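Quick one: structure for this chain?
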Amino acid sequence: MAEHKLPDSLELLLDTMCNTFGGVMFITISMVIMVSVVSKMLTGGSSAELERQMLEEERRRIAELEAVAEEQNAESQTMQSRSTGYASGDREAVEQLRERMREAARLEERHTAQLQELKRLQNEVSRRTAANAAELERINRSELEAQAALREQEQRSELLAQEQEAIRGQRAEVRPRKIRFAKNEATRLRPYDVILCGDALHRLGEGFDSSAEVEVRRNGNTLTLIPVRGIPVSEEIGKAEFSRLFPGFDRNRCFVRCFVHPDSMETFVGLRQMFRAFGMKLEWMITEEYLLFLTDNPKYRVSD
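Got it. Here's what it folds into:
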């Protein structure tokens, strides 16, 4: 059987008990010797018989003390053996307790990890639930918007159908009317190009070069006229104001070719009256793109 080592605290206890017992024995023997010496000194006389009795008494006391010491040693050994047995059992119990504590610590760590994982899963479930709720709300809102748009479209379709029916009825009642346009006339006059756009008159003149009021861009046989800076005109233009727009205009050599923007028709009505009043021939067209196309006919060819 393996020898068990006592704990440090138990060894210190036994050491202290042995030292205490030795100290008690030493003090007892010293007191006995001191009492004998003092009694001898007090009697004042000594004899062989007295010394022999005292010596025997001392031997008897020493024998008693040795017996007591042996008895104490036996009791100490018994206590030490018992303490050794107790200590061995205590160590096993302590080891078992420590093992149980370590197992409890492992279980606690596992439990903590499981709680953390459970908390994480709960947070993930809450997040996904909130995201699903938001997505469901968005889908419901989209469905409501789609239904509202569908109802609005249906209402518009009904209104359009009613308008179409009304237009069909009006067409059936409208009588056809002939529309007459002015006939094109051949002329030897040169065109004097102007642009009426945004209640402003932009003058290009007889040539096809850029002016301060109109920029000309050429691409092949196509000329694009771009209004840059014009002269403001009003609907009720006067003769004096009109004459200042065309200084030096020779009506026997040129005619006016006017490009009219759709938004400037009311202003053009006043200008057309002035053209007629001054005896100026006029050719006009409504357009938003101011283009001129050159011809290959030598009679109308324009030199670069």
